[in-house]
Amino acid sequence: DIAGIVAELAPLADEVIVTRSRHPRSAEIDVLRREFDALGKEARAAANVPAAVAEARALARPDDLILAAGSLFLAAEVIECVSEEREPCLAGQGPWKERSVVEGRNQNDK
């Protein structure tokens, strides 16, 4: 349900970049773009996932959140794009702020 998903995401985004994964059944870029346009949200197009990730990073300010939404195939490609950075980031050495492992735990959890 592309229209339904776009309707939920569009109001939350300051910027939208649409792309398609390598999976043969992934949605066409033009279809995604038209859905966002129909809701008054201009969407940029990127030819592939690495280009979309690069463009999102270029647009993002330090405190921005980049959200990749789509299929598990798209998620896997995004992970491939950032895999070189994951180890330093998980160790608190990358550009991301460290967060406590207990953040969000219930007060009764000790």
Task: Summarize the structure in words.
β1 (17-18), α2 and β2 form a beta-alpha-beta unit. Strands 1-2 form a two-stranded parallel ribbon. The protein is globular and about 35 Å long. It has helices at residues 2-9, 29-38, 49-59, 72-90, and strands spanning 17-18, 44-45. The protein contains four helices and two strands. Mean pLDDT is 81; it is low at 87-110. The protein is 44% helix and 4% strand. The chain has 110 residues and is mainly alpha-helical. The termini are far apart.
Radius of gyration: 16 Å
Q: What is the averaged pLDDT score?
A: 81
- Share of residues in helices: 40-55%
Give the topology string: H per helix, E per strand. HEHEHH
Strand content: under 5%
Query: Biggest sheet, open or closed, and with what strands and sense?
Result: 2 strands, parallel
* Low-confidence region ranges: 87-110
How many DSSP-defined strands?
Answer: 2
The helix/strand class is mainly alpha
Overall 3D form: globular
- Strands of the biggest beta sheet: in what spatial order? 1-2
Number of helices: 4
How far apart, in Å, are the first and last alpha carbons? 42 Å
SSE inventory with pairings:
Blueprint: H1 2-9, E1 17-18, H2 29-38, E2 44-45, H3 49-59, H4 72-90
Parallel strand pairs: 1-2
